[in-house]
Amino acid sequence: MLQTGKSLSTFAEIIFVANLKKIEVEAGEQTPSVLLDKEKGIFKIEGFSFSDNPHIFYAPVVDWFKEYCNSPNEETQVVFNFVYVNSTSVKFINDILKLLDGLFVKGKTAGVTWHMNPDDEDIEQLGLELKGLHAVPFKIEPKDPGRPEPPKKKFLG
């Protein structure tokens, strides 16, 4: 698992060394946790996403999905569970969704679950906007009160 103190170049190396089977990244102060496990069929991005350089964080994740789409599982269900996401991160989330659109259009079973707190109108609205832009089936679901929250880090002062 990538620790938050390790460099992002280490993150990229982990992706390519693992033959794109699994990525597991702990949440940072400005970046979400990521679990992409092809063998177990788990695809989750959770937490805060407001990095000053989202390209550095998300480019390897998008590349992983590009490679995954060449040989996807029978079913691909991606779960997004954001506490906060900024507009620059949304571009990369949109890139992931476009790749999922491609799977769906080719007849593969693919879908998105967008979790949101029932009182978080911003995350709900973002989910609705993204749902309207994409062909992949897209569920917006309030978080289950019994479900643990995604990893939270304190904002830097």
Describe what you observe in this structure:
With 157 residues, the protein is an alpha/beta fold. It is 38% helix and 26% strand. The protein has helices spanning 8-17, 54-70, 87-105, 121-133, and strands at residues 22-25, 33-37, 42-49, 75-85, 109-116, 138-142. Strands 1-2-3-4-5-6 form a 6-stranded mixed beta sheet. Strand 1 and strand 2 form a beta hairpin. Helix 1 packs parallel to helix 2 and helix 2 packs parallel to helix 3. It is globular. The two termini are 27 Å apart. The model is unreliable at 1-7 and 12-18 (pLDDT under 50).
Walk me through the topology.
Blueprint: H1 8-17, E1 22-25, E2 33-37, E3 42-49, H2 54-70, E4 75-85, H3 87-105, E5 109-116, H4 121-133, E6 138-142
Parallel strand pairs: 3-4, 4-5, 5-6
Antiparallel strand pairs: 1-2, 2-3
Helix pairs in contact: 1-2, 2-3
Please give the radius of gyration in angstroms: 15 Å
Q: What series of H and E elements makes up the topology? A: HEEEHEHEHE
Overall pLDDT level: 86
Assess the beta-strand content as a share of residues. 25-35%
First-last Cα distance: 27 Å
Number of strands: 6
Structural class: alpha/beta
Order of strands, main sheet, comes to: 1-2-3-4-5-6
Which regions are unreliable across 5 or more consecutive residues at pLDDT < 50? Answer: 1-7, 12-18
Helix percent reads 25-40%
Q: How many DSSP helices?
A: 4
Largest beta-sheet details = 6 strands, mixed
- Taken from the alpha-carbon principal axes, the silhouette is globular
